[in-house]
Amino acid sequence: MPTASPEAAGSANIQTLHDFMAAANTAYYASRDPLGQAGDFITAPEISQMFGELIGMWFADLALRAGAGERVAYVELGPGRGTLAADALRAMARAGLAPPVHFVETSPVLRARQRAAVPQASWHDDVAGLPGDRPLIVIANEFFDALPIRQYERTARGWRERMVAGGQLLPGEEDCAGAIPIQLADAPLGSIVERSPASESILADLAGRIAAQGGALLAIDYGYEGPATGDTLQAMLSHAYADPLEAPGTRDLTAHVDFAMLAATGRATGLRPGPCVGQGAFLSALGIDARAAALARAHPERLEELRGARDRLVEPRAMGRLFKVLALRHPAWPAPAGFA
After folding, report:
1. Total-model pTM
2. Measured distance CA(100)–CA(14) in Å, rounded
3. What number is the average pLDDT over the span 164-170?
């Protein structure tokens, strides 16, 4: 692992990993639709309609049991092509629910795809524009993983923030011990600690709104329950892992989500977090097997496709274990389904 300072790399362009990742992903998402076989990656809603339908029924069940069915708004952060929302809203309609739809999205390319899928939606550049007069149920599927992170390395000189310099990640000069969770302060030399101030800030804002207005937030992403050490920065290009520091703006940069941080941030703002569970357990509890069987009966020619999609979403060797699910709710709202 490199131990030289950024200055030793001889690069005039030195920046924190946080700033590098923020600029790279802003350019990346502004210029393309990255989803699907022709893109760089595929998310759960694109794998099968079952994912969005189950999220829609989860939403309807929670809203109706909370007595907020006629007032609640559907909010999605980073809604991709709008596939999840379209499937979820179709499922909600069967339960007699048709909430107003609000998307938080900055990419003009993806906004165009979303408008075709969910034309009735309202769009916002950030969470500040969301309505303040009604309960919000917020869906964040593979949203937090794309937000910029800071990385700190324990060196012989103490904890230092990692900088991008000369195409490398190198420890900086300033002491950053104050940014390290106390549980990890004595981690071995060479250990990496990640923090996502953008995730903490956005979640704190949303949690404050939910605490004041009612509602819940559902976060689904790949990640872990921290505090923990490890370098999880990665890049995807044409469905394969790529160098995250090469050609910024041409590949998707992500990092694993610390679900313990999400829960702690929500709790500090007055919300009640539930348990963090694997995506496989969550979708199984919501009835994915029954839904797959019903679709197979209606479309027997799709049997193998449905089996493959179900396994990809649920099985531990696929998305079932690495992807985690966490719900944060207003303390007066009932416990949501899927976490028993």
Report:
1. 0.94
2. 44
3. 95
